[in-house]
Amino acid sequence: MKNYLICYYILQQCLFETLEDDIAQLLSKMSPESTDDGTPADPKTYQRWYKVIDSDNMNDDEIKNKIAHRLELTAYEVPKTIELLQNTDISYYIYQARERAEEFLSENNIKEE
Length: 113
What we know:
The structure is a single chain. By secondary structure, this protein is mostly helical. The protein has one domain (2-107). The protein is 65% helix and 0% strand. Helix 1 (2-18) packs across helix 5, helix 1 (2-18) crosses helix 6 (91-107) and helix 4 (60-72) runs antiparallel to helix 5 (79-87). It is globular. The termini are close together.
């Protein structure tokens, strides 16, 4: 669950940078606030994203490249976001995403799988 949330929060920050409509649509499907357990209302969305990264065993470059690759496999048109992930140092976004994921899990009393 934590890795899923990290992807979500990184993409959320990318939305603020790129303002791409398709990222907004994806984030609405990914929203952890849709259900009580933090998973999105659409189980397929969770399945597609929860194993994209392994934040405990990947460095920041690996994380952003894995997320960019996953986006390339979707039907969403997000070239600005993919470019941002591939060509920009987003270490601070990743750090914030880790913090926010831990916070969300703690606040919602969700145990890690």
